[in-house]
Amino acid sequence: MSSNEQRRPWIVGVSGASGTPYAAAVLRALIAAGESVDLVVSRAARLTILGETGAPFRDGHWRDDLAKWLGSDVSDADIVHWPAGDFAAGPSSGSYPARGMIVVPASTAACAGIAIGLSKDLLQRAAEVNLKERRPVVVVPRETPVSRGHLLHLVELVDAGATVLPASPGFYAAGATATAQQLVDFVAGKVLDAAGVPHTLFTRWTGGV
After folding, report:
1. CA-wise closest residue to 168 among 192, 143, 151
2. Which CATH number fits domain 10-195: 3.40.50.2000, 3.40.50.300, 3.30.70.100, 3.40.50.1950?
3. Is 9 helix (H, G, I), strand (E, B) or coil?
4. pTM here?
5. 66: which of 6, 19, 46, 52 lies 20 to 30 Å off by Cα?
6. Quick one: the chain helix, strand, coil %, rounded to 5?
7. Higher-scoring residue by pLDDT: 206, 13
8. pLDDT band at 174 (very low <50, low <70, confident <90, very high)
């Protein structure tokens, strides 16, 4: 990046819902595509990451912890981590030059907070900011079944300009023998499609039987 070029990252928010492998797949793909990333991990998400992967996520050791979580070297990746409680962080302002935001996975609480503009933490605030700035915002709810209240919040997000992309893997890309990672990658690939980021996470349908 030249000195005259302004860094424009994708903000990735990880909430406390189960489904941290989806977040890991999205982060790996963004890094592989050469994208800049600003990472916001909620307090609840830290517990979920630990429970689902055994890897901690600590502010002071976040890059090492991220490498363990992703299972890949991130030493050269263009990643900035912002603590979820930091309301003075760059992504809290509409003047911050972000490309957009991805919330993956998105808990019902995160969806509700973003939909009503609660700004409970930096994740919710950054998503609200990107919506008001009319940037791409992709929200990946995972929890099921879905209550009426949650459905209404998802409708509000769509009305505000977000892409609501449930974590619903398709089996056509790998068939009945699909591995768990292939199903995760399918969802991550759909997320990157919605964001307009090239990837090779799944085989695309070309027609036929």
Report:
1. 143
2. 3.40.50.1950
3. coil
4. 0.95
5. 6
6. 45, 15, 45
7. 13
8. confident
Question: Which residue do the tokens 């089996």 mark?
Answer: 171
Residue 103: beta bridge partners? 13, 139
Buried b (16+ CB within 10 A) or exposed e, 47-78: ebbeeebebebeeeebeebbebbbeeebeebe
In the chain, which ranges are continuous DSSP H helix? 20-32, 43-53, 62-70, 108-116, 122-132, 148-159, 180-195
Which pair of structure tokens corresponds to residue 135? 């940037």
Residue ranges covered by each domain of the chain? 10-195
pLDDT computed for residue 196 by the predictor = 98
| C-beta of residue 46 within 8 angstroms of C-beta of residue 57 | yes
| Cα–Cα distance, 167 to 188 (Å, whole number) | 9
Find out whether 188 and 26 touch, Cβ atoms under 8 Å: yes
| pLDDT computed for residue 3 by the predictor | 43
Residue 184, classed as helix, strand or coil, is helix
User: pLDDT tens, 46-78?
Assistant: 999 999 999 999 999 999 999 999 999 999 999
Q: Is 33 exposed, middle or buried (0-12, 13-18, 19+ CB in 10 A)?
A: middle
